[in-house]
Every structure is written in structure tokens, then in C-alpha cells.
Amino acid sequence: MNIGLNAIEQNKSLILEVERHIWQNPETGYREWKTHDYLVGVFKSLGLEPKFFDRIPASIAIKSAKDGKDRVFEKIPGFYVDFDTGREGPRLAVFAEMDGLLIPTHPESDPKTGAVHACGHHAQCAAIVGVAAAFSAPGALDGLSGSIRLIVVPAEEGIERDFRNDLIKKGVIRYIHGKKELMFRGLLDDVDLAFMIHTAQGKCLFCEKGTNGNIQKKFTFIGKSSHAADPHEGINALYAANVAINAANALRETFTEKDVIRFHPIITSGGTAVNAIPDKVTVEAYVRGASLKAYSQINKKINRAFAAAAASLGCRLIINDICGSAPRLYDQKMIDVFSSAGAAVLGSDNIDMDRSWDSGCSDFGDITQVMPGVHPHIGGAAGISHGSDYKIADPVLACVDSAKIQVNAAVMLLENGAALAKEIIKNNSPAYSSIKGFLAATDEIDLEREAVIYEDNGNVSLCFT
Questions:
Q1: pLDDT confidence of 161, banded at 50, 70, 90?
Q2: d(CA 274, CA 311)
Q3: What is the pTM of this model?
Q4: Helix or strand or coil: residue 313?
Q5: Which of 177, 182, 305, 415 is the most exposed place for a label (fewest CB within 10 A)?
Q6: Given a cut of 90, is residue 70 above it in pLDDT?
């Protein structure tokens, strides 16, 4: 057993303790301060000094068209540590996510907040503690070139939209997802390639060809309240929302299979009293797809359908679109690396690295738009992801074995003068040549506007892009 893997075994009890502690103390995105403090203490116990995502002036962060203000973006949860081999080579980033979900029906959710780690991010944090222990061991970096950056990152889940929008308006953050926020703050400017492992059900290590990206949407229909017995005196915002959802549903047959489009709306506010015509109704939704271009085009069609539906009933409509996470575009060579790294730990019968494209989303996709990366899954969980029965059934697999596989992969990439990592970087053709270019492209999707204009002469204009 090599030095790093031996160190993981020696710290097995610590790794499993971390998994239990974070499971029992769940927090949602950009609120993970208890998790942050706990993990900082664990990393310090390994002799490491984490570096934080501190306040940063806008003049230092990448400026987009919407961020030219003289402001300071505040400190956010999370940290990173660097392991420098002292030899020239690329920088490899390894991620773990801290945030949980809001599922108050889960029997182990926080009774006050409803938060629970029903996607297994807490197991990622436990695994990265194992990776940190491995590369902290004396001699573990011998024979490697370049450097390794372990990044404990907040806010992967796209939830609590109003809370995060408020943080953006206050200048605390620029983006609703953690990895994109780190890109904006310049913390990935010197990173050349990246990976992470996500927890999943089953017993194997697996990987898809790639996954969808998304646009996160909020529609606010504004009508006119009246007594329900006199509906002719009001404008029913709930009916407008229902017509809009039906209009968008009628577009589904125009979605092509190759674009893997998904549209799923929910009505988050539908009225306040049964005997009053609803005058304000909100609908939240995602548009998902396999390419930014594809789901951007579909998004315009859906906005048009909603605007036309609002106009048909005489409602106002405010559209708020935020470009969420981009599609994950995996590097095939890095998939191959994890196939070998995983087989060395789990055996080749427990490796499945050729699954079809998946319609789920993750902000790791933002990383893969600008550099080679891969995001495989490892078993160990049971129940339904994001469900009220989710749990970690095999913490050794989900945390300890995950750490071993990640260490194996890092060694394969950075041994022999980092020859394999350099080859991957040379042959990879990212969708965007720079982080700045990628952020600018996603900023163009963001939209907040009144979508229906009623003119004095009776004409109606739709403004949905």
C-alpha cells in the first residue's frame, strides 16, 4: 500500500467521524458556517493551514457588465489548502461540497431549518479529509510534479433562490453557485484541471458521458384582486399562471432528443384567500439542457409562452432568469484515469464508466467549461437522492474508498513529471478559452424585466428576452 493510502487507513476513524458530524449538522448553501468551522479544525488537526474565501474588492474580482460598482464581495464559507510538490507542473483541483438540502419530511432533518444532507455532500467532505490526510503524510508527494489544491466549496444546490438573490443585491456574492463564485473571485485562475467524486446509490464507481446545465427561473404574475363572487372586477393571476404552464407544456414536442431538454415548473404562491381572486402568483422553474445554446433558445420560447399567457388575461408578468450551472463536459482521458484508479480499490467488476448522458445538473459543469475535468459517482448511499429516505448505508465505500480512489487518480495524473496531466491539458478543447469569457456568456442569459407592456392605445407588447 502506498504512503497516501496507508495514511487514509490510519485516519479511517476520523473520516467516518467527519461523515457523522456533518450529517448531524446540516446547513444550506452560503450558510455553512458551522460546517466551515468544524472542517477548518479537522484540517488544522492534520497540520494544515486552510486559506479562506475572504472579502475581495470588485476591482480584483472579474468584472461583468453588471458588476462595475465600487463594492467589496464579502467572506463566504469554505476554504482551500495547497500541496506543492516543489517540482514544475500543473495545478490539480479536487473539490468537496458542504451544503445540504431542505427536506423537512426527512426523519433526520434539522427540526428548525428542515435541512438535511440528502445528496451526500457531507460524505464528500469526509472523503476530502482522507485525501488531505494522504497528502499530508511524509513522503506522499515524492515522485509527483505540480501541485494539488483541495477546495471545500459552498452552495452547489440551486435552492433558496430569494435568499441568494438578496445576497447578490447586498454585494455579499455575485453568483448563486459556489464554484462559479470562486471562478469570479479569481480563486481558480491558476488551476489547470479538476475532479471530484459525488456520492450515489449502489456499490460501484460510475460516470456518465456528461450532464445537463440549467437556467433557474421565477415568474411573478400580477393581476387585480376582487371578491371571488365578483370575478369580473378582478384579474386572476392564478389562471394566467395555469394558462402559461399549459402553453409551455405544448412546446414539449418541439424539444429535440439530442438537447435533453427538461422543463419543470412549480407554483410557489397561488393566492391567499379562497374567497379572493388571486392578484399575485409566483412560478419557479428550471430549464435544463445538454448545451448552453440549446437551453438558452428553449428558454426564450418558454418566456414567450408565459408572456403571451399573461397578456391573454390582462396580467402583468415579471420574468427573472438566472443562468444556473453549465453542462458538465467530461474529459475522456480523465474518465479513463478514474476507471483505473477505481479498479485498484474496488475491483474492475465494480467500475462502470460508460453510462449515457444524464439530465441532472451540478455547478462542477462550470469548471468543465474552461478546463478538463470529471465528476464520477461512488456508491454507498441508499434511498432516493433528494428524498426523505436518503441515507449513507456504507460510509466506508462512500468516504474512505472514495478518498483512496481520488488519491490514486491524483497520483496517476501527477507522477512521471505530471506527463498524463500535461497530455490531458494539451489535448483538451474547452468550450471557453477563459473564465472571464465563460462568465460573460452566462451573464448574457440573466434577465429581470417586465414582460408585458400595455399601451394607452390598447396595443400590447411582449418583452421576454
A1: confident
A2: 24
A3: 0.92
A4: helix
A5: 415
A6: no
**Residue 64: band (very low, low, confident or very high) from pLDDT cuts 50, 70, 90:** low
Q: What is the distance, to the nearest Å, from the Cα of residue 143 to the centroid of all Cα atoms in its chain? A: 34
At 65 the pLDDT is: 45
d(CA 380, CA 123): 9
Measured CA to CA in angstroms, residue 219 lies from 250, 266, 310, 326, 449 at distances of 18, 10, 10, 21, 10
Give per-residue burial for 358-387: e unless 16+ CB within 10 Å, then b: beebbbbbbbbbbbbbbbbbbbbbeeeeee
Over the stretch 432-457, which tens digit does the pLDDT of each residue have? 999 999 999 999 999 999 999 999 89
Give the residue numbers spanning the domain of 290. 213-324+444-462
Give the closest residue to 307 by CA, choosing from 114, 465, 119.
465
Give the number of other Cβ atoms within 10 Å of residue 164's Cβ.
22
Asked whether residue 192 falls in the same domain as residue 237, the answer is no
Give residue-wise pLDDT tens across range 408-419: 999 999 999 999
Same domain, yes or no: 109 and 16: yes
Residue 335 lies in a domain: yes
Looking up cell 467572506 gives 75
Q: Which residues pair with 452 in a beta bridge?
A: 462
Residue 319's CATH number: 3.30.70.360
Instruction: Output the CA torsion 445→155→179→379 (10° steps).
Output: -110
Q: Is residue 438 part of a domain?
A: no
The answer to the question of residue 159 being in a domain is yes
